């Protein structure tokens, strides 16, 4: 067995996949640059660590269930009212998360509420926080099935240990009184431990119409709004403004 194959075999055994794939180029560069053995060893470990960090980040994003559009570099602050660049940059610093504040992002459909919430979730993951993105429907499914589904229970326990939870499109689906009660207990258990980011196209006063119980609605709002910044966005729907058509440019 030649030296290259021997190293590749050792790397496979030790699960040093990145080093095994790049050992030849690393060795060639080291020979060309004339670096020391210690520098060469450091470069190999750097490659492996970077590979593992990238893989870990991808896994966190997968578990977080971020939507495809979560890059805040693509968020157009000029297209909406209520989110100037300075405010967006301040939100991206996540100091509000460290202070255990929550956000309620309100506005009509199609103006980027979900993208904004998902982008902040992504920044939180990058910063090392346990952050997750779930729709209201996802949350209710978890609460209804965690007693009979291992997958739902695993997700529920994950959310209970979170630093940051996005609940997208809250109050978009009608829920029964017993379901509303379960949702209240979920919020009640986490409201002083987790920073929530809520997206909604309904004002808090309209939530009672979805829940159908004023007492439960008031209790939920009391906890969500205790340490909370309400961000009201307005503007034209991006989807309608950029509507696609098979017959040429849409009017």
TrEMBL record:
Organism from which the protein derives: Niastella vici
Q: Which family, according to the similarity comment?
A: Belongs to the IS21/IS1162 putative ATP-binding protein family.
Q: Which InterPro entries match?
A: AAA+_ATPase (IPR003593), DNAC/IstB-like (IPR028350), IstB (IPR047661), IstB_ATP-bd (IPR002611), P-loop_NTPase (IPR027417)
Domain AAA+ ATPase per the UniProt entry, residue ranges: 99-232
User: Which CDD domains does the protein's record reference?
Assistant: AAA
Q: Name one GO biological process term.
A: DNA replication
Q: Which UniProt keywords apply?
A: ATP-binding, Nucleotide-binding
Coiled-coil regions, chain positions: none
**Protein name per UniProt:** ATP-binding protein
Identify the Pfam families for this entry: IstB_IS21 (PF01695)
- SUPFAM superfamilies, from UniProt? P-loop containing nucleoside triphosphate hydrolases (SSF52540)
MF annotations from Gene Ontology: ATP binding
């Amino acid at each position: 067995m030649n030296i290259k194959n021997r190293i590749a075999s050792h790397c496979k055994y030790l699960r040093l996949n990145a080093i095994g794939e790049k050992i030849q180029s690393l060795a060639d560069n080291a020979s060309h640059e004339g670096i020391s053995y210690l520098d060469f060893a450091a470069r190999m470990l750097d490659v492996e660590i970077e590979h593992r960090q990238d893989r870990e980040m991808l896994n966190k994003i997968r578990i977080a269930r971020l939507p495809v559009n979560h890059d805040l570099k693509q968020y157009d602050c000029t297209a909406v009212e209520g989110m100037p660049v300075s405010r967006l940059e301040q939100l991206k610093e996540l100091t509000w998360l460290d202070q255990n504040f929550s956000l309620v992002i309100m506005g009509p459909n199609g103006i980027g509420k979900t993208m904004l919430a998902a982008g902040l979730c992504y920044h939180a993951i990058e910063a090392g926080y346990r952050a997750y993105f779930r729709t209201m429907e996802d949350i209710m499914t978890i609460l209804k099935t965690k007693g009979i589904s291992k997958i739902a229970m695993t997700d529920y326990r994950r959310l209970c240990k979170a630093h940051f939870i996005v609940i997208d499109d809250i109050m978009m689906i009608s829920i029964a009184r017993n379901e509303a009660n379960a949702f209240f207990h979920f919020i009640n258990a986490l409201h002083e431990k987790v920073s929530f980011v809520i997206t909604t196209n309904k004002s808090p006063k309209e939530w009672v119409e979805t829940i159908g119980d004023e007492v439960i609605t008031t209790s939920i709002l009391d906890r969500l709004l205790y340490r909370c910044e309400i961000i009201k966005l307005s503007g034209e729907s991006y989807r309608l403004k950029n509507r696609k058509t098979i017959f040429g440019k849409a009017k």
